[in-house]
Amino acid sequence: MTEILKRGVPGLKSVKDLPVVQDAPPPGGFPSIRIERRLPSTGPTGVAIFAGLAAIMGYGFYQLNERRNEKRFEADEILTVRRAVQPVLQAEWDLRYLEHLKKEREEEARIMKNVPGWKVGESTSRHRWLPPLESWDKRPLI
């Protein structure tokens, strides 16, 4: 029960003198109260986003694997070509070395022609000198 206090009413000496007014719903009832949460559905759902990202990542991993296979095939092809060409390149390097050695000995003979007892091409040290061993895979393929 709700009691309404009316100000300015003469002779109000007690609470018991107040009129009793009972609350009641308006005619037709109160309007319904919306208690559920209604958010507009904007954008894809979480499952759709997850599926999309999983598909993108799967495609990315597929492409990565394909590129790795291509690079492996290309590297194997280059190695095969180098192995096939290596004897020819080694022969060219050997010919260049022999030409260089011949020019050096001719220069040595020209410079040391007036030195008695000098033998061209003979080593002046007790150690045996060997030409540097160059790895075929470090040389440029020209």
Automatic annotation (TrEMBL):
Keyword Mitochondrion among record annotations: yes
Any Pfam family matching the protein: GRIM-19
InterPro entries on file: GRIM-19 (IPR009346)
A Gene Ontology term for the protein's cellular component: respiratory chain complex I
Signal peptide bounds: none
Superkingdom as given in the UniProt entry: Eukaryota
Residues passing through the membrane, by range: 45-62
Protein location: Mitochondrion inner membrane
Topology of this chain in the membrane: Single-pass membrane protein
Keywords: Electron transport, Membrane, Mitochondrion, Mitochondrion inner membrane, Respiratory chain, Transmembrane, Transmembrane helix, Transport
Functional summary from the UniProt entry: Complex I functions in the transfer of electrons from NADH to the respiratory chain. Accessory subunit of the mitochondrial membrane respiratory chain NADH dehydrogenase (Complex I), that is believed not to be involved in catalysis.
Entry's family note: Belongs to the complex I NDUFA13 subunit family.
Name of the molecule in the record: NADH dehydrogenase [ubiquinone] 1 alpha subcomplex subunit 13
Species this protein is from: Edaphochlamys debaryana
